[in-house]
Design a protein that fits this description.
With 705 residues, this protein is an alpha+beta fold. Helix content is 43%, strand content 23%. A seven-stranded mixed beta sheet has the order 15-18-19-13-14-17-16, with no helix packed on it. It has a five-stranded antiparallel beta sheet with strand order 2-3-4-10-7, covered by helices on one side.
Amino acid sequence: MLNLATRFLIFLQFFLPPAVFAAPVQVDHATVELISEYDAVVPGQSFDLAVRFDLEEHWHIYWENPGASGLSTTIDWVLPESIEAGEVQWPAPERIQLGGLVNYGYQEEAVFIVTLQAPEDLKLGSELAITADLFWLICKETCLPGEATLDLVLPVAFKAEPSAEAAAFVESRNRQARTAHPWATTTYLEEEALVVVIEGEALPADLYLYVDTEGLVDPSAEQVWSTPEPNRAELRLALDTLFFENQPLAISGVLQSGANSWEFNAEILDTPPSFVRALTEAEPSGFEQRLLALGLPGILALAFLGGLILNIMPCVLPVLSLKVFSLLKHAGQTRTDALRHGLAYTAGVVLSFIALAAVLFALRALGERIGWGFQLQSPGFVVVLSAVFFLFGLNLMGVFELGARLVGADNKVARRKDVLGSFGMGVLAAVVGAPCMGPLVAGVSGLAVQANVATGLFTFGMMGLGLASPFLVLSVFPKLVAFLPKPGLWMESFKQGMGFLLMAAVVFLALVVGRQGGVDAIFILLVVILLSGIAAWVFGRWGAASRSMRSQWIARLLALFLIGVSLFYGVRSIKEVYLDYGNQESIADSSGQWGAWSSERVDELLGEGRSVFVDFTATWCLICQVNKKVALRSAATESLFTERGIVALEADWTRYDSDITDALENFGRSGVPLYLLYTPDGEVTILPQSLTNRIVRDAVEKALP
């Protein structure tokens, strides 16, 4: 029988008020409080407490893995002796995008449950004082650190009843990944990616994997599940720095589909399991695909070849022509001197490509959604590049000899026989040539940008090596220079002819500017060209060495003033025109067969049971224009599309368009061209970068038999 004291305590439990909850604390856009699921603590039993955050609109806090930025919320408990607290039971997070970064966290409300264990010897009728010291980071456009100390006093009783806050615990548990997913899973390393394979029936199309350990995988990399065969889905996760440092043997997290979340745990295998892959992407029908099938060595080979092809692109002709002249003039140098200068030139090119790639990765880390060659989406950059080409052309035509700073500097570099001069010429070649998007560059740059930073820098460095390789070969085998024509009067005519090629490049860039800003943009470019031409003429006429020193200085200052004014006017004015011009739809061909792309339009057409071909292109992409003339706008292809009922859409990336950028990244690309063929059942075929009528027809017949 219960003694009198025990009966009295039981009486108090039913008739005295229950636990006294501490008032919520408000700190910088968040209200936090410590709550209990039950109104009392029973000796020897576990009980659940929770920290609840109520957040102001658009503010968020972070999951245990905050993602690309941020800090996880921490709880430090101050507990009586013999009370133990378990781990935080995290609700499944949501993806919060800030620019190009993806963070994991919570908006509006978050309830973090922790289970505590009460000892057997707690005295009935006593009170249990619990303190939680919290630290969190709350962000919107800016981030603010927050901290609070929360106190809660609970009575110790023979029986506990659900508190007024019990519903918050139920809701939080419903958001947790409390059960394992029902599918078979295999996870393995392949090159520098973590491949997750899920097999089973009724696989959701919107699966997303949250890895719960920070720094193992890149959270900002797009998660695209491929379906190589029915009831099978594959995901390639880009690895982050901590993975290579820790070399984990397993990975865990949350697998999410809509409102459903499952616990995910998998052992990481060193090699892929033995299975046959049935790719949805077109079988390697082109040179690029065959190299990509080799993995990282193939990617590096593509990067090298892409850089090699840049040597024949108009962007680098100014520097390369002067480099050729330098080789001809110094054909008699020793092999040692030739090798020294060749290595210096190569180092300048490669290091500059790596530096440009580092800037690209840094900007993407700060949230900029850009790809390789993004400079040519800026009309200001195109105006400056046009002026540089125009001045180069005038210099080669003899309008001035020592003129504009860039040309003059490059001529001095070409005449100098020291290593630093050759290195400087390599830097110039890289700076001028990097914006060019030649064949092979778009695809391999997309792979490089979405890889980890080390692989990306290595890939872009290999691209620079490809650009420098012709001159490196000539320096290793200087006797090859003997096969070049001997210096003579013909070089002056050749030099002037190169000037006309540069003028042609200016005409091409004028087309780009026109697509970016319309007629007003072309007018601004022509004004810049006119003022630059006047500056070159003034310097050539009165700045020559035969003139007095006073005349030379006046001519130099006036020329610099005119060039400075023209570029300031051009860059500033064309930016305003660019913004006013607004986003333009892709220009359809004369037959009206090509329409403007949007992801909504693709979904609409697929919903109607139509097949869709999408051309991701840009005016400044030369290989895009070649493919358009040779294949995509040919009568044969147009007839094929009409015959098969294929709707043709054009996604024009001449101007920056975040939707197109997202679409490119979804398919692992950082630039154009990209050609996609959608079938009504949702399958996608990726065509090669270089197209012919036969390649297009074969892809269509294979996807739509």
